[in-house]
Design a protein that fits this description.
Number of domains: 4
Number of helices: 25
Shape: elongated
Structural class: alpha/beta
Strand order of the largest sheet: 2-3-4-1-5
Helix content: 40-55%
CATH topology of the largest domain: Rossmann fold
Distance between the termini: 75 Å
Oligomer: single chain
CATH class of the largest domain: Alpha Beta
CATH architecture of the largest domain: 3-Layer(aba) Sandwich
CATH superfamily of the largest domain: P-loop containing nucleotide triphosphate hydrolases
Length: 529
């Protein structure tokens, strides 16, 4: 019968265990000096070596001639344990044997001395699955077992264990195995098994394993089925991964606001055998890496990212197109979309397409994060010296009334000074509610006053704020308040608004500015001014 590679290559000594030296060094010392504990607790994520170390420890405590703290593998005890012929080493899966009667069976046996070994060892895997009554039955014996009994408990969910159980064991926390350690182990197995393994493919497998050695080896065996060479293309095809190049394509399309390209990418994924949910997880991970690049210095960021030089260069280029605020907002949208994809009956393609459209245009979002992202983008443009002019759509409504609504009286051209119009033309500021909502994030008290006031735009593009309460003008006088107010206006109007372009005029409650004609036609409303 074929034996899975992760079982075939299970470490037989503590020295062969990868990435857990902080634990194996202590266990070797205890074995060499005979300083065994009566109970051990191994906790950590899956595939990090908990059960493997428990098996090695069970052999080491019974080995007749330990070598550097590890079982020799040659003595009678080691061979007997390896063949499974001994009854003194008991492995129990608490997931399927979690009743109090299962624990009582163990307690009835511990009083008897080992038949052929020095110690009777009980390995209880997934111990967090035991019932409360089972834990209570185990409690006293776990604290003071007979001298010839050793308990080894293993769990992936430490928080589910009673504190009384944890306090009676010597606890070891197994860490996720580093990507470099995983790739080194995969290359070793590939050489011994005669399988060609590409360096980039090994790195992909190590990333997908997320720190678990068993998962890495299992994925490697799956990709190498039939003895084929393992390449990045084979890994992507086997596990349904799209790769970082595909993520970069998506990110560049979002940066360029190329919605047609995004629809094309989603269509390609949907037509292939790849799962959109898997693609979405990779996109979330890519945004995380970009956020790290934008938040931490480049020399330090690479410590937290498992990247090749080419991947690091590509990631730097992609991250430079976004502000940190935009990356934070996008990451939240991606997380919410992934949660939506998991709901029964959800159309993953539709969720993906709608979310990517939102990533291209922050104006489609109404959350505080969306507003912050828009403000940050505007500030970045202003800081770089880019002139932010109104779009053609927003200019037309302002210019059109000037052509149609000419001043009532214009002085003859021969006069040295042109006569000023006797009546101003003002248009209501249609985005006034959005301005107040954006301003509320930093100045909630002043924003509450502005809700009872009105705002207009004149022919020159100035913002006329008509106020009926003197407190409104007083509260808006400080420069920092006015700057924040202008930022909210700039964001809502999609053009730069400076403090000198904002005018406050006193009116009666519910009234309008003097000498002003108010235009509020449908075209103005559609233009959003």
């Amino acid at each position: 019968m074929h034996q899975a590679l992760y079982r075939k290559w299970r470490p037989a000594t503590f020295d062969e265990v990868s990435g857990q030296e902080h634990i194996t060094d202590i266990l070797k010392y205890e074995t060499e000096n005979g300083l065994f504990c009566h109970a051990y607790l191994f906790c950590g994520s899956r595939g990090t070596g908990k059960t493997t170390c428990a098996k090695i420890l069970a052999r080491a405590v019974n080995c007749e001639h330990p070598v550097n703290g590890s079982p020799c593998g040659e003595c009678e005890a080691c061979r007997t344990i390896a063949s499974g012929a001994t009854t003194d080493i008991l492995e129990m899966d608490a997931a399927s044997n979690n009743k109090v009667d299962d624990i009582r069976n163990i307690l009835d046996e511990v009083v008897y001395t080992p038949t052929s070994m020095k110690y009777r060892v009980y390995i209880i895997d997934e111990v967090h699955m035991l019932s409360s009554s089972a834990f209570n039955a185990l409690l006293k014996t776990l604290e003071e077992p007979p001298a010839h009994v050793i308990f080894i408990l293993a769990t992936t969910e430490l928080q589910k264990l009673p504190a009384t159980i944890i306090s009676r064991c010597q606890r070891f926390d197994f860490r996720r195995i580093a990507t470099s350690v995983l790739t080194e182990r995969l290359h070793l197995i590939a050489r011994e098994e005669g399988i060609a393994l590409d360096d980039a493919a090994a790195l992909m497998l190590a990333r997908l394993a997320q720190g678990g050695m068993r998962d890495a080896i299992s994925l490697f065996e799956l990709c190498a089925a039939g003895g084929r060479a393992v390449t990045p293309e084979i890994v992507s095809e086997t596990v349904g991964s799209c790769g970082r190049e595909a993520m970069s394509r998506v990110v560049r399309a979002v940066s360029a606001k190329d919605t047609a390209k995004l629809f094309e990418i989603i269509a390609e994924i949907d037509a292939s055998a790849k799962d959109i949910a898997v693609f979405w997880q990779e996109l979330i991970a890519y945004y995380r890496d970009m956020f790290v690049i934008r938040t931490v210095k480049s020399t330090v960021a690479l410590k937290y990212l498992d990247l090749t030089d080419a991947e690091a260069q590509m990631l730097h280029a992609d991250a430079a197109a976004f502000t940190r605020e935009a990356l934070s907002y996008h990451s939240r949208l991606l997380d919410e979309a992934y949660a939506s994809m998991q709901r029964p009956g959800a159309s993953r393609r539709t969720v993906a397409e709608l979310t990517l459209i939102k990533l291209c245009d922050e104006r489609l979002g109404t959350s505080p994060e969306a507003l912050v992202a828009r403000i940050a983008a505007l500030e970045a443009k202003l800081a770089s010296g880019v002139s932010i002019a109104p779009s053609a759509q927003t200019q037309a409504p302002e210019e059109k009334p000037q052509e149609v609504e000419a001043p009532a009286a214009v002085a003859p051209t021969v006069t040295p000074k042109a006569a000023e119009p006797t009546e101003r033309t003002l248009r209501p500021l249609r985005v006034w509610a959005e301005v107040i909502e954006s301003f509320r994030a930093t100045n909630p008290g002043v924003a509450a006053l502005l809700t009872t006031e009105r705002a207009y735009t004149d022919e020159s593009g100035r913002i006329i704020v008509s106020y009926s309460k003197d407190i409104t003008k007083i509260m808006m006088t400080p420069p920092e308040k006015l700057e924040a107010f202008c930022s909210a206006l700039s964001l809502a109007l999609d053009r730069a608004v400076e403090p000198r372009q904002v005018v406050f005029e006193k009116v009666e409650a519910g009234g309008t500015p003097n000498d002003a004609k108010i235009l509020a036609d449908e075209l103005d409303e559609l233009a959003g001014l």
